[in-house]
Structures are given as C-alpha cells and as structure tokens.
Design brief:
This protein is mostly helical. The chain is built from 4 helices and no strands. The chain is elongated and about 70 Å long.
Length: about 80
C-alpha cells in the first residue's frame, strides 16, 4: 500500500512542478535554463581539454614503456 501512495504522491508532485514551471514561473524557469548554458559549455570544454591532455600523456607513457622494454624477437 505504501508503494502506491509514494507513486501517486510522486505523480502529483511532478504535475505540480510542471504546472508551476509553465504557468506560474515561466520567465524565471526560462532564465534559469538559458542562464545555465554558458557554464555548462565552459565545463564541457574543460572536461574535453583534460581528456585530451590525459590522452597525450598516456600515449607518451606507452611509447616510453615500449621503447624501454626489450623486444622478445631480439633476444633469440
């Protein structure tokens, strides 16, 4: 019984939130959504930059390990 009450309560809360966002606080909601775009773009660029630097470091590390490791064919 408690699960159904939680589901119904959740549906009512979702409907109330959608109603408030669309009909009551549309301008504030609109500004919030569009105001969050520049920081999100900046953070995505930062993550891409960190991933690129990490990839370059990994590639250099692998190349150095391959150069330091003796080849199995050269021992025979």
């Amino acid at each position: 019984m408690g699960k159904f009450v939680a589901i119904i309560g959740g549906l009512i809360a979702m409907a109330g939130g959608i109603y408030l966002a669309i009909f009551v606080w549309w301008r504030e909601f609109y500004e919030l959504v569009f105001g969050s775009i520049p920081p999100l773009v900046f953070l995505m660029g930062l993550i891409a930059l960190i991933a690129g630097i990490s990839s370059i470091k990994d590639k250099k590390r692998i190349k150095k390990i391959e150069e330091d490791t003796p080849e199995a064919d050269s021992e025979e």
